[in-house]
Amino acid sequence: MSGETPERFRAALVQLRCGRSIPPNLEMAERLIRQAADQGAVYIQTPENTALMELDRPLALAQASEEEASEAVARMRGLAKELGVWLHVGSIAIKVAADKLANRSFLIAPSGEIAARYDKMHMFDVDLPNGEVYRESEAYRPGSKAVLASLPWGKLGLSICYDLRFPALYRALAQAGASFLAIPSAFTRETGRAHWRTLVRARAIETGCFVFAATQGGFHEMGRWTYGHSLIVSPWGDVLAEAGEAPQILIADIDPSLVVHARAAVPSLSGGKDFEVEIAGEARGPADS
Ligand SMILES: O=C(O)CNC(=O)[C@H](CS)NC(=O)CCC(=O)C(=O)O
Question: What pTM did the predictor assign?
Answer without folding.
Answer: 0.95
